[in-house]
Design goal:
The protein is of the alpha/beta class and 256 residues long. The chain has 7 helices and 12 strands.
Length: 256
């Protein structure tokens, strides 16, 4: 049987392959994350004066239990603005104190970590690395993509360019110019070298922390975390990670 006509038709459609590859990249979580961070970076360049707000992007800092990765930090005399980006679509439900928020796309519902809690770890890492008052560090969350908030959000949770307005709403200087320059220098010298290797190591440490069978360290003091069981209250009988340094250190984490 002569397959040459079939082969000929396949070769005529060679252009379909690169198109499918491009579509796959655009739909990947990697590209969505990259696009969200690029949007924040570009809009900041256009709307935040470079002589006032000093940006440091993609900051990975060592912590007692591994590493933490910060999307953007803007250092100014008005404080440090720590920006967490979320490129998501659909309806977003959540409140400041909920451990998990909800994303709804048509009839599909997904849970994801409260980004304010996620960013709090970034804030604490910077506080420890820079030895500056917590009041000088401001947490900001920005959702990019076609998302809509369906519940009332705190002022520091924004959509699109709303994070620019939030940052600019602070107009009382709390840091001197010399402090600003010193903070930028400390962040640059204390961060891990940006690149593929650092990102891969960070992801691996995240997987280890998610593994209940793996050893983990307290993010606050570095002591070993141990599995404990709640004995009273609404969560009686539930397991949780507790710091072995209790009662001196009272850090707790969910098992999952």
């Amino acid at each position: 049987m002569d397959f040459s006509p079939i082969i000929s038709q396949v070769f005529k459609l060679w252009w379909v392959i690169p198109i499918l590859l491009v579509v796959a990249v655009f739909k990947s979580s990697w590209f969505k994350g990259w696009f969200g961070e690029a949007f924040v970076r570009v809009s900041a360049q256009l709307r935040l004066p470079a002589d006032v707000y000093h940006p440091v992007h993609n900051v990975t800092l060592p912590t007692p239990d591994g590493t933490t990765q910060i999307d953007h930090v803007f250092v100014s005399e008005f404080g440090l603005f720590v920006v967490e980006t979320k490129n998501m679509k659909g309806w977003i439900f959540g409140s400041e104190k909920q451990p998990q928020w909800t994303q709804k796309i048509f009839k599909q519902t997904y849970k994801f970590q409260n980004p304010l809690r996620q960013n709090y770890k970034h804030v604490k890492a910077l506080e420890a690395a820079l030895d500056i008052p917590l009041e000088a560090i401001r947490s900001v969350v920005v959702f990019t993509g076609e998302s809509t908030f369906k519940t009332a959000m705190p002022d520091n949770v924004t959509r699109g360019g709303g994070y620019i307005r939030y940052i600019k709403s602070f107009s009382d200087p709390i840091l001197s110019e010399s402090q600003v320059q010193e903070i930028v220098s400390q962040i640059e010298s204390g961060r891990l070298e940006p690149g593929w290797k650092t990102n891969r190591q960070h992801v691996q440490k995240l997987k280890t922390r998610a593994d209940i069978s793996a050893d983990r360290k307290c993010p606050a003091c570095g002591s070993v975390m141990v599995i404990r069981t709640a004995k009273r209250g609404a969560k009686a009988g539930n397991q949780f990670w507790g710091c072995s340094g209790y009662p001196k250190c009272r850090v707790m984490q969910n098992v999952t």
